[in-house]
Amino acid sequence: MRRLDGREGGGQPLRTALALSVVTGEPFEMTNVRGNRSTPGLKAQHVACVSVAAAVSNADVAGDEVGSSTLRFSPRNVRADPVEAAVGTAGSATLVCETLLPAAVALDDPLSLTVTGGTDVRWSPPADYLRYAKRPLCSAFGVEFGVSVPRRGFYPAGGGTLSLRIEPAEPTPVELTRRAEPDELRVYSVASESLADAAVAERQVEGVRDALAEAGVDLPIRSSVSSVESDSPGSAVVVVARGGEDERGGDGSASLVAGFDAYGERGTPAETVGSRAADSLLDWLGGDAPVDRHMADQLLVWVALAGGRVRIPAVTDHVRTNLGVIRAFGYDVSLRAGEDGDRGAGSGAGAGPGTGTGTGTGAVVESDGGR
């Protein structure tokens, strides 16, 4: 049984441990779960992550209650029966989905997952980040999944629904060491129907456009605006940089997909929300890493499983703790900080998938996919 200390890094070490345990079939015990948080132990969102991982792997579990600081997880066999999970209120549905994505390498048949809770809430990836940034990037190295959002869930009521269909995968090595230049930006702006009269979704797009124009960014911008039913009023905006679709090859370049997001808050003008997402994009453009810093956290597991190299914009606390869990499962993953050409990127203004304080120094994460 793998023995892990979950004191640092919030919920990410737990999600990574669950994913690798499902894939490898190896049990683990994690103590001090979220020990450095103001409210340590499992929250409802983390219990839902454990629940879906246990359902897929037919696992024996101990300590899967809200507030628990120790979790034991012993998987048996992976199966592709449909899985449902209710996070409750506005707990992140997208992070529950993220936990299960690596199971693709252990599946023989497609797996369907439906999660109710918060689809667009702070400190986690918005649904449109998962759909329009993460999904196409994963597809580039052979991991296919479909995302649908039947109903949006904002803070504090949640009540949203997120559905995922994960296809069995044999991923190719992840090679992302050089960044293709963006050739277009896509803006996905969503707001509750109750905010339609105030044109919140439209104004978020204008905030993005104005901030980029002021910074002198001259790229085509395509926008999508949605007004949705929801239990709580809320809004979110995701900016996706795309480019280099014809530049994939052995030189480390690949189709470019990077995402930047921000959430609406009471008392914050919609234009400001849009400008926050644009600020995160501008920080990234100031460096030369091919992925955004939040995607960097999420790709570490795939580098371990499939091999390859990814140059990341900053060595964040989440990167360090995530690598610690991955190495504890026996994967040989190296981190070379300060690679030539890595200028780093400032911390994004928008609350997005994964958080942590970066050193401002880029690095290359590398693995041959072995243990």
Describe this structure in words.
With 371 residues, the protein is α/β, with parallel strands linked by helices. It has a domain at 184-285: RNA 3'-terminal phosphate cyclase, insert domain (Dihydrodipicolinate Reductase, domain 2). It is built from eight helices and 16 strands. It has helices spanning 12-24, 44-57, 93-100, 127-140, 200-214, 270-285, 293-306, 317-328; strands spanning 2-5, 28-31, 60-62, 71-74, 83-86, 111-117, 145-151, 160-166, 174-176, 184-192, 221-228, 235-243, 256-263, 308-312, 333-337, 363-367. It has a four-stranded mixed sheet, covered by helices on one side. Strands 5-6-8-7 form a four-stranded mixed sheet, covered by helices on one side. Strands 9-14-16-15 form a four-stranded mixed sheet, with helices on one face. α1 (12-24) packs parallel to α8 (317-328) and α2 runs parallel beside α3 (93-100). The radius of gyration is 19 Å and the shape is globular. The relative contact order is 0.13. The model is unreliable at 246-254 and 340-360 (pLDDT under 50).
